[in-house]
């Protein structure tokens, strides 16, 4: 699949590509830690009584989770393949959604291309 080879190209052939990959994953983990601290601060100061801001924050947090999942699947090792299979199989109960997200019933190159595009776009939405 071409998406897997593009990740390998970044890691092996670009100058400090490996550093970019690990800085990206470490920075994403740090953003999640800050997000959890922000949620705990909101719970501590009873911001959950403000439903509009609480629900909008919940939607942003769900977009964070979806973005992280799509970034986890992109390197396409064996663990990320099975992770993508299990989590996308949860989408089968919504008719038509699996074809839109994965491009069919088999997870392969079109799925990775969609995940790459969504992984790039979702941070701008959130």
Automatic annotation (TrEMBL):
It comes from Leucocytozoon sp. H05. This is Cytochrome b. The lineage of its organism: Eukaryota, Sar, Alveolata, Apicomplexa, Aconoidasida. Residues 1-126 form the Cytochrome b/b6 N-terminal region profile domain. The chain crosses the membrane at residues 20-40, 52-74, 80-107. Keywords: Membrane, Mitochondrion, Transmembrane, Transmembrane helix. One of its GO terms (biological process) is mitochondrial electron transport, ubiquinol to cytochrome c. The keyword Transmembrane helix applies. Pfam families: Cytochrome_B (PF00033). One of its GO terms (cellular component) is membrane. PROSITE patterns: CYTB_NTER. InterPro entries: Cyt_b/b6_N, Cytb/b6-like_sf, Di-haem_cyt_TM. GO terms for molecular function: oxidoreductase activity; quinol-cytochrome-c reductase activity.
């Amino acid at each position: 699949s071409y998406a897997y080879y593009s990740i390998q190209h970044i890691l092996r052939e670009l100058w400090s590509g490996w550093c970019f990959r690990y800085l990206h994953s470490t920075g994403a983990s740090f953003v999640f830690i800050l997000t959890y601290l922000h949620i705990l601060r909101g719970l501590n100061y009873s911001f959950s009584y403000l439903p509009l801001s609480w629900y909008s924050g919940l939607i942003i947090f769900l977009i964070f989770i979806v973005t992280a999942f799509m970034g986890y699947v992109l390197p396409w090792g064996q663990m990320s393949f099975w992770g993508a299979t299990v989590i996308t199989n949860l989408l089968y109960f919504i008719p038509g959604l699996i074809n839109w997200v994965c491009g069919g019933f088999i997870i392969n190159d079109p799925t990775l291309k969609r995940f790459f595009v969504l992984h790039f776009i979702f941070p701008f939405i959130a």
